[in-house]
C-alpha cells in the first residue's frame, strides 16, 4: 500500500507543477469559443479530417483500407473465375480482419463479415 500512496503523491505533484506553470492557460485558443466547424456536421468526419491534416489516422482507418483493397482483389479474382478454394481462403482471411476492425472502430462504423454469395455488394459498402 505504501507504494500506491507514493504513486498518488507523485501524480499530485505533477498536476500541481502543471497548474503552477499555467496549465491549460498556455494552450493556444484557451478562453476562446470553439469554432463552429467543431460543433457542426458529422463528428467522425470532423475528427478524421483534422487527424488526416495532422498526419495521423486511427488504426481502424488503416484496417478499413486494407480490407477494401483485399475485397477488390477477391472480386476481380471471382470475375476471372478464380478457384473457389482460393477465394474461400481469402474471404476467411478478410473476415479475420473484419473482426479486428469491428473491435477497434466506432460502433456505428462496424461491418458484417463477408460472404461469397454477396461479395460484390459488400465490396460496394466498403468503398
Beta-strand level of the residues, as a percent range? under 5%
Which secondary-structure class do the elements indicate? mainly alpha
Number of helices: 6
What is the averaged pLDDT score? 82
CA radius of gyration: 23 Å
- Runs with pLDDT <50, length 5+? none
Report the major sheet.
Answer: none
In which range does the helix fraction lie?
55-70%
Q: Give the overall silhouette.
A: elongated
Tell me the series of helices and strands, N- to C-terminal. Answer: HHHHHH
Report the count of strand segments: 0
Distance between the termini: 53 Å
Tell me about this structure.
- By secondary structure, the chain is mostly helical.
- The protein is 66% helix and 0% strand.
- It has six helices and no strands.
- The N and C termini lie far apart (53 Å).
Topology readout:
Elements: H1 2-20, H2 36-39, H3 43-53, H4 59-79, H5 84-104, H6 119-126
Notable traits:
127 residues, 6 helices, mainly alpha, elongated, single chain
What is the compact description of this entry?
With 127 residues, the protein is an all-alpha fold. It has helices at residues 2-20, 36-39, 43-53, 59-79, 84-104, 119-126.
Amino acid at each position: 500500500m505504501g507504494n500506491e500512496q507514493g504513486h498518488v503523491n507523485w501524480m499530485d505533484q505533477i498536476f500541481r507543477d502543471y497548474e503552477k506553470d499555467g496549465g491549460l492557460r498556455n494552450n493556444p485558443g484557451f478562453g476562446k469559443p470553439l469554432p463552429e466547424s467543431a460543433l457542426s456536421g458529422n463528428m467522425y468526419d470532423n475528427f478524421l479530417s483534422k487527424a488526416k491534416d495532422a498526419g495521423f489516422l486511427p488504426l481502424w482507418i488503416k484496417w478499413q483500407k486494407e480490407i477494401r483493397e483485399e475485397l477488390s482483389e477477391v472480386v476481380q479474382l471471382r470475375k476471372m473465375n478464380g478457384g473457389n478454394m482460393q477465394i474461400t481462403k481469402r474471404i476467411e482471411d478478410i473476415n479475420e480482419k473484419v473482426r479486428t476492425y469491428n473491435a477497434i472502430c466506432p460502433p456505428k462504423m462496424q461491418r458484417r463479415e463477408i460472404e461469397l454469395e454477396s461479395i460484390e455488394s459488400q465490396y460496394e459498402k466498403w468503398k
